[in-house]
Design goal:
CATH class of the largest domain: Mainly Alpha
CATH topology of the largest domain: Trigger factor, domain 2
Largest sheet: 5 strands, antiparallel
Shape: elongated
Number of domains: 3
Helix content: 40-55%
Order of helices and strands: EEHHEEEHEEEEEHHHHHHHEH
CATH architecture of the largest domain: Orthogonal Bundle
Radius of gyration: 35 Å
Number of helices: 11
Mean pLDDT: 86
């Protein structure tokens, strides 16, 4: 194989690839040998069919398959040997081809620009840690205790008030007829929360242990038995018990009930939890600082085809006229996004950053934990949408790159209080809102210029279109 790189200036390159007739014929012979033992031709034993017979019957199909394979293999090799990373899909133009002929073709490719990532180590960004005051931790623990009250059995003549726990059995009817799902045993209701049926709790105010009480309520619209949805129902209730709330004692036993070793351990866990709540938001600010610094890096040329693709994405759903008006704005946004993505991707490749299957599954599990009750729906979504998994992989890949940049760049470590953290986040939100309002006043349509970049870790495989009319593949029956 002979490879010649033409018009070396700029990112657009033509690569001429030449493969002599002898080599092409050897590929054809290999293919004939491969199929010889599998095809059945009347009058010949399997494996004994002469090549000329095979050539006459399957020649066009064999040449088409061989040509496609040679084009894929040699074009990839030509790019690798010349250290050319394609920005988008290379195009192949066949110049000379045919059975018992040389093969010559041109690869037209836009090359990714050379990226210098040395300046990444000079990036400066703020790295925050939040010092949580013990009083904040105590306040959070008291809130938890308030929402987890203990209840003590009330005296037999004590009437139920709002906030009390009432335990009851009930039988319900609609139009004096019982229905499926209309029975309940030892049902517990905290009066005032109205969590059972709307208005149900209020009717239990004043009941005592042993009372019989008829409560009227409307069954919900989503009631499982459809014919009873939105129907008025009578609940014949027997009050089993009335319990009064008592103040929860915040001690080691309370902490153990929440999964901690003791009260001191609970305070540490809660303090870390509060810290993490702020850390995630503050980490996003640090990331945005890094991305803004990367935007300032110089990249001599950005591939026009990538800009065009990004502009198409930005203008999706717009009329042709609006897209034209916004083109200048879109071009600038596209260039920033692509430049940032190219720099991050190059840095990731140089540092051999990979996303393992274990890391990807870990991220999916994290999302499952964030959506309790909808785990199956989320899992089905990822199983049925490979593009969503690829997007998630890109997000994890980007986060790993940002974390490595934080290690190598110059961080300005700041320990701040909870109040300072809230002020920093509030100011950041205000700046973002001001920028959005400013964008809305522009004549162009407002565009969401999110900082997260869609990093493509590998170029797409080269697709080859043989100029030979496609024929069916060789039958191996």
């Amino acid at each position: 194989m002979k490879v010649t790189v033409e018009n070396k200036k700029g990112l657009n390159k033509d690569i001429k690839v030449f493969i002599d007739k002898k080599t092409m014929n050897s590929y054809m012979d290999e293919k004939y040998e491969e199929i010889k033992g599998t095809v059945n031709i009347k009058g010949f034993r399997p494996g004994k069919v002469p090549k000329e017979i095979l050539k006459k019957q399957f020649g066009k199909a064999v040449f088409s398959e061989v040509l496609d394979k040679v084009l894929k293999d040699t074009s990839t090799k030509a790019l690798d040997e010349n250290k050319i990373k394609p920005a988008g899909q290379p195009k192949l133009d066949l110049k000379i081809y045919g059975e018992d002929k040389d093969l010559e073709y041109i690869i037209s490719v836009t090359e990714l620009p050379k990226i210098d990532t040395k300046s990444i180590k000079d990036i400066k960004f703020d790295e925050y840690s939040v010092k949580i005051d013990p009083s904040e931790t105590d306040k959070r623990i008291k809130e938890i205790a308030k929402n987890q009250p203990n209840f003590k059995e009330a005296s037999s003549d004590s009437k139920a008030n709002e906030g009390d726990l009432v335990i009851l059995d009930y039988d319900a009817t609609v139009d004096d007829k019982p229905f499926k799902g209309g029975e309940g045993k030892n049902t517990q209701l905290t009066l005032g929360k109205d969590l059972f049926l709307k208005g149900f709790d209020k009717q239990l105010i004043g009941v005592k242990k042993g009372d019989l009480k008829v409560v009227e309520a409307t069954l919900p619209e989503n009631f499982p038995e459809k014919e009873f949805a939105n129907k008025k129902s009578k609940f014949n209730c027997k009050i089993i018990s009335v319990k009064k709330p008592e103040e929860v004692k915040i001690n080691d036993d309370f902490a153990k009930n929440l999964g901690a070793k003791d009260l001191d351990d609970l305070k540490k866990l809660i303090s870390n939890q509060i810290n993490d709540e702020y850390k995630n938001s503050l980490d996003r600010l640090s990331k945005n600082q890094i991305l803004k610094e990367i935007e300032k890096f110089k990249v001599d040329q950005i591939p026009e085809n990538l800009i065009e693709e990004e502009v198409k994405i930005l203008s999706q759903g717009m009329s042709e006229e609006d897209a034209k008006k916004s083109k200048k704005n879109f071009d600038e946004i596209a260039k920033k996004r692509i430049k940032t993505g190219l720099i991050l991707n190059e840095f990731g490749e140089q540092n051999k950053i990979k996303v393992t299957e274990q890391e990807l599954q870990g991220e999916i599990q994290k999302q499952l934990r964030m959506m309790p009750g909808q785990e199956k729906m989320v899992m089905d979504f990822y199983q049925k949408n490979p593009s969503a998994v690829a997007s998630l992989r890109g997000t994890v890949y980007e986060e790993k790159i940002i974390n490595l940049i934080k290690e190598k760049a110059k961080s300005n470590k700041k320990e701040i209080s909870k109040n300072e953290a809230e002020k920093i986040l509030k100011d950041s939100q205000k700046q973002q809102l001001d920028q959005e309002l400013k964008d809305q006043r522009k004549p162009e349509k407002k565009v969401e210029t999110k900082k997260s970049t869609d990093i493509k870790t590998k170029p797409k495989p080269i697709k080859t279109k043989s100029a030979v009319k496609k024929t069916k593949k060789v039958s191996k029956k």
